[in-house]
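Ops channel
N.P.: pipeline sanity check, posting one input/output pair.
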């Protein structure tokens, strides 16, 4: 956890970023600034219902990428010079195994989770924390209406 003075508090991350930009434009040593998120919440957004088709498609896509990787490794490092059909076969075999794995794993966890989602951690507020000896200077810069245009002079 960063030590120092909290010089400002903002409700959104872009506001906190803008404040750090103002400090940077005023020649403040921004290396001494930290943005600290507080009141963290876990937010899970449901993106859709899960089905066997969706599990098969997602598994096939993942498997195809893995197959392409293995095919490229064979293509590049093969002493006999593997051809393009070897790469294509690796992609198809990877997609097939990925599809099979996707369907089997969905069948196993079907009763517990029948949807897809994206999870993220969101902060309720963001504090600007600076080293104690620089706290007053940072507050003065942030409270000036012309802080973005006029660089601060060293005192």
């Amino acid at each position: 956890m960063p030590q120092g003075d909290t010089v400002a508090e903002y409700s959104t991350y872009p506001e906190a970023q803008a404040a750090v930009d103002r400090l940077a434009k005023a020649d403040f040593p921004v290396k001494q600034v930290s943005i600290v998120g507080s009141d963290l919440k876990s937010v899970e957004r449901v993106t859709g219902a899960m089905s066997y088709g969706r599990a098969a498609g997602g598994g096939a896509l993942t498997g195809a990428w893995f197959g392409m990787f293995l095919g490229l490794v064979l293509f590049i490092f093969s002493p006999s010079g593997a051809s393009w059909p070897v790469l294509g076969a690796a992609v198809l075999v990877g997609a097939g195994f990925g599809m099979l794995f996707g369907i089997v794993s969905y069948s196993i966890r079907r009763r517990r989770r029948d949807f897809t989602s994206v999870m993220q951690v969101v902060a309720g507020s963001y504090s600007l924390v600076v080293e104690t000896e620089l706290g007053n200077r940072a507050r003065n810069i942030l409270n000036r209406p012309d802080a973005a245009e006029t660089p601060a002079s060293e005192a």
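N.P.: looks fine end to end. The mean pLDDT is 87.
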